Amino acid sequence: AQEKKIFMVQGHYPTIRRLLRARGWVERKLPGVGRQLEEHRSDQKKQQLEKGQSGDGDGKGEASYLVRDQLPNFIWTNYLDATDRRLLQQDHVVNHYARVDAFTTKEGLCLSLQNLPWIEQADPNTFFPRCYRLGTMDEREAFIEDFCLTAARSLLKLALEEAGIGPVGTEQLPNSTNRAGESHVSHPMHSTARPGSPLYPQLVEDALEVCEQHLGVLGHQDIDRSTPFPCRTCIDWDRFLQDYYRVAHEGAGLVLSREQRKQCQNLLRCLAEQLPQLGMEGKLNIWILKPGAESQGRGKAGGSREHTEASHPGGVPPSLCSTGVVCTTRLEEVLQLARGCTAPSVQVGKWVVQKYVERLLTIFGTKFDIRQWFVVTDWKPLTVWFYQDCYLRFCSRPFSLCRLERARHLCNVSVQKWYKMSPDQDPRVPPDKIWSSKQFQAYLAQLGRADAWHQVLVPGMKAAILNALRSAQDQVGFRKGNFELYGADFLVGEDYQPWLLEINSCPAMSPSSAVTRRLCTNVQRDTLRLVLDRKDNPTCSIGAFQLIYKE
């Protein structure tokens, strides 16, 4: 008997419907919706017959009606909970796994990657900006310690910069001179102290003491990170942070002796050997606060109207809470927002706070990120396919660490669609704010760094994806025969190192540009080749998919 080919689609996926029908599959309409559609088609058919036209799609409407009571073999849906589990039999295929929130929510990914060193010989700090769940007391305390230590390191960097010495860590950067003569590296020069501004001679001494103690702890630190916070009481932290804010954000000056200058350089050089994120973390101690249960940019758009935002040196306005994601430079703001936000999308205690990548690569002075697809076709053994085409998403306004509104800092299409390009935006930024990876590779070649894509970025993205999957593997609800297409989002450091931000379990397939129209169509086509055609013909084309891991 011929194998049944009945499919069901939940959501707006015209490409999936078209490709399955072209293969001879018949669609079973969703209950309730199907009857209305069939009545509509019946009326259409009567009109067509009266005009002498042929029927609907060579009988597809009738075929769909005939299978209305049969179980679909293939289900493509927005999310697994939309699937009636009673419809599933052993040989049925669904495009989702259960319990993937262990790596597709911000809180889940944060927790899973904390466990990575016990599972793999890999350090998440080399590819995932450090992250804390503020609803957990231990992690909230760890974040407070991290914020203070980062402020101390940042102060040493600012002191050296004010003394005319460049940022520590750049000596090892690859040559990235822009032949077009524009600076693509993002960190702004710290403005020198205003005339008559106060000076803080003791501040550098305090920062040196803290960093020396921290370096001593790092030298004897074991994997469980249970070492108590160094120098918890050796300085007045409230005073230190307030003074640091004045230097970092308000133009106050520093006094630096020649001996202190040497100490700063040596300490930062030693810390860089122990802390993989010392380079990317910058010197302004910016953190990004996110709803932990969300993924896929949910909560980031903040409504249909453009939000007017200004700089708030004294605090983040309460209205920002409703946007879901907030960039901030002050410890008290993070803790206050996490406690006090009443946005309906955020459950109490479900915030995560993550270090903002301050020293990142920009294109034409604009921040961007990379959306990278991959498919898991099996969890036992773990089998991962990497899509070799991806795309870049640009912000609407020029990048600035001094202005933290989301039009400059959140690259998601769901955020940027509410913003027009600002008048001061470089005209070379594409109007639709999307580039293909091919365009990015051409840009890298213009910088004289054509090798960075294949030698640094792609291997780094593959490694980060595999580490995230392995860290969460035991949490996922595995079902043989299922598969899932994911979208991982990456930032690029100024040394071309990719930094994983999040993984989405239902990446958007509605095109927002000519580039995404082509790529989204292609990845859906190639996914069906991978999970359907390859079963009957193991040598068939799978397009741009590449097998990168099979246990």
From TrEMBL:
Its main localization is cytoplasm
Listed PANTHER family: TUBULIN MONOGLYCYLASE TTLL3 (PTHR45870)
- Start and end residues of each stretch annotated as Disordered: 36-62, 169-194, 295-316
Tell me what this protein is called: TTLL3 monoglycylase
The catalysed reaction is: L-glutamyl-[protein] + glycine + ATP = glycyl-L-glutamyl-[protein] + ADP + phosphate + H(+)
Q: Which organism is it from?
A: Menura novaehollandiae (superb lyrebird)
Q: Spans of biased composition, class Basic and acidic residues?
A: 36-49
PROSITE patterns according to UniProt: TTL (PS51221)
Q: Give the gene name.
A: Ttll3_0
Q: What is one Gene Ontology biological process annotated in the Swiss-Prot or TrEMBL record?
A: cilium movement
Localization terms from the record = Cytoplasm, Cytoskeleton, Flagellum axoneme
GO molecular function terms listed in the Swiss-Prot or TrEMBL record: ATP binding; protein-glycine ligase activity, initiating
GO CC term, one of those recorded: microtubule cytoskeleton
Keywords on record: ATP-binding, Cell projection, Cilium, Cytoplasm, Cytoskeleton, Flagellum, Ligase, Nucleotide-binding
Q: Which domain of life is it from?
A: Eukaryota
